[in-house]
């Protein structure tokens, strides 16, 4: 007799008023409610039994698949692969005694699940050597619901986890990796790939509970040329190489896709594993200074370009560029270089080089408005067609921020130029009919599919005589 028939008969024994057809209809309804591919007939019986207050306490006699999981299952064993894993963290119980917790995401051929390893199981010998894609055996675990009602595997004192070296039908990491062009809102527990598009920045903040937080932000470009914003909560620059080239390949393990303020975004957590092409040692960069500005803290913000016409945003925290001027060609040995974002500090080296005609000057780098494409960075020269306007925009958090915009054109077309916060002030200084040069603009898709240009913290507006 199959395990399904076993469970069905046990339920019929305890609920004699039900018929087999009644239960089959309930199974159908459960599967329709939860969604195709997430629940087996066997798993649905456990949910139905729970609805009637009936316990099917005898553990399964066969190993489960992840989509068979249900809250309340005990002594389950299953074979699966590791998708991502967080470091072990120490917490305190109500009585003040400490305990450890480590979380993992695992997958098989049909589904994914979260795993919690408690106390000494969070630091099982050799667990730090487990890599994404490794095949593991979870032994005598129990299942509880998480805050979202999803079944979560728990490995405690009576459970165990071990790596195995068997042949398996569960696909490896490469076979479940999706290009970001394939992603859809609502997907979770993904392995995704793309290339760096622009800067990688870290941020610090205070969360709603008053606790400090951190995150990494970047943009990734897919095979279709479109980009998507990425936010990795709980991560910082310590987990990525010091030298990351522009267009470096990236793979993120353990992320989800959700709606953001400006479209669909990829979100990760401290459990997300980040794989970025790069090295620990930085390499020299030779660039021409296109523009120099100063931020509120007095640090130099330099826009540079190399011989391949790639733009660089250079943050100078060491004042080592004070002696240089716009148009100079310089060689940098930065402390960090993330895509087109370069950091100079007291450990960096900068020197001026002789003029190099292979590196374009600003006049040769300007792009015509008609050639502007989304997600690229540009320098333009145009005339102001409309008096700049300023308005206050309220964010979802209730913050009011300034947005200024102006309408400009060159001999190929017209476009809106916009600036938020401090960049709004740069636009306000422009006047109708002025010819202006703007460096460091980022092109984004605006309303009705039109392209708009946005000032960045490295942008500079120069009025032409």
Query: What does the overall shape look like?
Result: elongated
Percentage of residues in strands: 35-45%
- What integer is the average pLDDT? 88
Please, what is the CATH homologous superfamily of the largest domain? Nucleic acid-binding proteins
Q: Estimate nothing, just give the exact number of structural domains.
A: 5
Q: Helical percent range?
A: 10-25%
Largest sheet geometry: 8 strands, mixed
Report the structural category.
Answer: mainly beta
Spatial arrangement of strands, main beta sheet: 13-21-22-19-18-17-20-23
Descriptive report:
With 465 residues, the chain is mainly beta. The chain has five domains: 1-58, no CATH class; 61-171, OB fold (Dihydrolipoamide Acetyltransferase, E2P); 178-276, Beta Barrel (OB fold (Dihydrolipoamide Acetyltransferase, E2P)); 285-352, Nucleic acid-binding proteins (OB fold (Dihydrolipoamide Acetyltransferase, E2P)), CATH 2.40.50.140; 366-463, Nucleic acid-binding proteins (OB fold (Dihydrolipoamide Acetyltransferase, E2P)), CATH 2.40.50.140. The chain is 11% helix and 43% strand. The strands form four sheets. It has an eight-stranded mixed beta sheet, with no helix packed on it. Strands 1-3-4-6-5 form a five-stranded mixed barrel. It has a five-stranded mixed barrel with strand order 9-11-12-15-14. A hairpin with a 5-residue loop joins strand 5 and strand 6. Helix 1 runs parallel beside helix 3 (41-51) and helix 2 crosses helix 3 (41-51). The protein is elongated and about 90 Å long. The termini are far apart.
